[in-house]
Amino acid sequence: MRSTTTPLYDLSQADDAAVIVEENLNLAVEIDHGLSADLKFISSKFLYDDTGSSIFRKIMQMKEYYPTACEFEILSLQSAQIIDSLNFGRPFNIVEFGAGDGIKTRQLLKKLLETGIDFTYVPIDISEQALADLQENMIEALPELKMKPLAGDYFSMFHAISDAATPNLFLFLGSNIGNYPAEAASELLSSFYAAMSSGDKLLIGFDLQKNPKVIRNAYDDPHGITKAFNLNLLTRINRELQANFQVSQFDFYCHYDPISGEVKSYLVSLVAQKVWIQALGKEFSFQQNELIWTELSQKYTFEQINSLAKENGFIVNHNFLDCRHYFTDSLWEK
Ligand code: AVJ
């Protein structure tokens, strides 16, 4: 039995479960940091444990959550034009960051296979379960696809894929970039740039600014699925850090500001309460109506997209748009 005063993450002690400890160390450190801040926050990257990834698949099926349908349309109807713009002329890799269920990407891959082009698909995802599901679905739908899945976070993967001999098409779809505040977005883009060779391409999804009600409905959804997605953070912390959050004592709130283009999501403490996190050996206090910021989902103008590309050294080859002009997959070149 662990005593209540000993934090779980004492790295000085050799432990059979060393791998698990290491995996959760990052979570422990970041949760400690975020819940100790004046304005509490939990990084949106922690939304995607296996349960969270499966709730996110439900989000993508909601009619209110338009980005998925928009990008599906782009990758289905314009795959030939996208492929034409690649110009690699020899076998290449398609490296997808945050692959998720891969249903949208499959449209592009299918077209490539039909065209007889030689390529290897390298999906990268943080959720092992999501990756295993993806692999199974891909093998079934596209049996001739060459695939090398990698489980882990983006940054630890860059070394695994930088092989200058083979050209790369990087995919960063779904407006995942929108989760990163401006400075972090630039950092991530420059890490992509550094891992690429001259002539390599990046196809990156951006959700565009549009009628604010359309955006609001995508996040403040009437089914409560986005709420469940956010509350799952607390369930995850309960399980992985042995905490005692009472999930029913928290609500979900989100807000779109059409001036800044930011959707911000929060958990709201419904009562004054204290929560014990065993792995940290610490108690955290929440005031009534205190917020925990959980996610940023930035919406973009074309000016912002062009300057993000330029600032990080990329050339914009083409913006592929859906018919409503809600979303763009922007093809950039190093
Ligand atoms: C997967 C990060 C693009 O911000 O729109 C969906 C996640 N959050 N609904 C987004 C999400 C709430 C999504 N991304």
TrEMBL record:
This is Histidine N-alpha-methyltransferase. It holds the Pfam family Methyltransf_33. It comes from Dyadobacter helix. Residues 30-333 form the Histidine-specific methyltransferase SAM-dependent domain. The keyword Transferase applies. SUPFAM superfamilies: S-adenosyl-L-methionine-dependent methyltransferases. Keywords: Methyltransferase, Transferase. Its EC number is 2.1.1.44. One of its GO terms (molecular function) is L-histidine N(alpha)-methyltransferase activity. InterPro entries: EgtD_Methyltrsf_superfamily, MeTrfase_dom, MeTrfase_EgtD-like, SAM-dependent_MTases_sf. It is an enzyme of class 2 (transferase). It comes from the Bacteria. GO terms for biological process: methylation.
